[in-house]
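Write out the bound-state structure for 3-methyl-2-oxobutanoic acid.
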Amino acid sequence: MVQKCTVKDIMAMKGQGRKISMLTAYDAAMARMLDDGGIDILLVGDSLGNVLLGYDSTVPVTMEEMLHHARAVSRGRVRALVVGDMPFGSYQAGLAEAVTNGVRFMKEAGCDAVKLEGGEEMCDVVRALTRAGVPVMGHVGLTPQTAGQLGGFKVQGRDIESARKMVADVKALAEAGVFGVVLECVPGELAAIVTRSVDVPTLGIGAGPECDGQVLVINDLLGMFGKFTPSFVKQYVKLAPQITGAVAAFRDEVENGIFPAPEHTFSSKTDFKILLDEEQS
Ligand code: KIV
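---
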């Protein structure tokens, strides 16, 4: 039996100097492939709003949409820790509602933990969730749900004042009980300082190599999201043109009667000609 990765295991990796790998997953088949690839954490990110559902941002994503995909990812995972991303509006209106929604990720979708965006101002929510038994991952720097307030999708913490605030935010979140923090779009030198200032692991996305782990959106890594590829993404393969090429070849073969060939067609020993005779009589 495969030993499932736990929150404790993830936290221990920082002390052991072992880097943590985290990728987004939105369905069972992909979750299985990422798990087979040895990924430590599968994040059911609200980025599914952009990359799967065709929204312009993560803001419209609902709890029901998140739970639907989180259930699928939980069914596909074997070893990895599954983290459900709390969508915009599901944890801001009050502690009771935040706890109800956090618990739903665990009870109804089989997640091991949740992630939410924000710094010091979210510490009460983090405390309420962890008290209720829901492990929480934080997310600071560029927080896409509130990108408008940050002046758009920009690198965060470029000046001393905002850098100091980021260090304070991450320390406060760690004290409130998060088991890890995503640092998104943060200068590498600042991410290194933040990483050294807390005992909990940092997971960088556009935050340089000094973080305790790295996270990417799977569709970006696979070259499957044509709209926009951020500069911090490394595309390990470019699947979009390969997929377009394959479906164009299929369409071509269908139009020209090449597909299906005999090897793609079922046959039977039954003499069906009798049906032809019946049709003609
Ligand atoms: O929703 C998401 O995919 C995320 C990652 C960018 C960390 O929050």
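---
The pocket of 3-methyl-2-oxobutanoic acid is lined by residues 24, 43, 45-47, 85, 139, 182, 184, 205, 215, 217 (CB under 6 Å).
The beta strands are 20-24, 41-44, 81-85, 113-115, 136-141, 180-184, 202-205, 213-216.
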